[in-house]
Specification:
This protein is 72% helix and 0% strand. By secondary structure, the protein is mostly helical. The chain has one domain.
Length: 74
């Protein structure tokens, strides 16, 4: 049982990494160092919003999975 939990955590971790990288794809290096944006608020729409919500959901699921694996292994 523990092996399957660890495997699920590895897969979820890789998925979180991929989702975060997909979100950062549109951000240029200028924005990383305080470039042209100048603090203008931009709402997320469409695919960008879906990626953001999926990242948050997967992060919460990863946290719950980590807690469950610690309790079972404990």
């Amino acid at each position: 049982m523990e092996t399957y939990l660890y495997l699920a955590q590895i897969i979820m971790g890789i998925a979180i990494i991929v989702l975060v990288l997909l979100q950062a794809k549109d951000a240029g290096m200028g924005n990383v160092f305080g470039g042209n944006d100048m603090g203008v608020y931009k709402t997320r729409r469409g695919v960008e919003k879906t990626l953001f919500n999926a990242t948050v959901g997967l992060g919460i699921a990863f946290l719950v999975m980590a807690l469950v694996s610690v309790i079972i292994a404990g």
